[in-house]
Q: What sequence folds into this?
């Protein structure tokens, strides 16, 4: 039996809220791949950089009139979901030098 795994691109842009809920549920299930080991320092740095950029965009967007941007609410929601997903990933998947509990050092 062939099994088809849904990808993010399977959901059109018009279904932003549905796709966001699906992505959150998928992230909780841990279906992002078989290599679920600890993040390398380089991966952690890249994810931190992405999270900082997303937060910067969200902060900049807060100073724009929402009536002038189509789908403003969906854009904000997407940024919030991406930020939360990265935050959860970094918290639940420590780097090689960090204990699994998230606490640093003895």
A:
């Amino acid at each position: 039996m062939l099994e088809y795994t849904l990808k993010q691109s399977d959901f059109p842009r018009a279904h932003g809220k549905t796709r966001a809920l699906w992505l959150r549920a998928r992230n909780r299930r841990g279906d992002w791949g078989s290599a679920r080991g600890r993040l390398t320092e380089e991966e952690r740095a890249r994810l931190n950089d992405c999270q900082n950029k997303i937060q910067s965009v969200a902060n900049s967007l807060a100073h724009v009139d929402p009536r002038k941007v189509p789908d403003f609410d969906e854009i904000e929601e997407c940024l919030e979901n991406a930020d939360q997903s990265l935050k959860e990933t970094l918290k639940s998947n420590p780097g090689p030098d960090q204990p699994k509990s998230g606490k640093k050092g003895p």
Q: What stands out?
A: The mean pLDDT is 75. The CA atoms of residues 41 and 97 lie 9 Å apart.
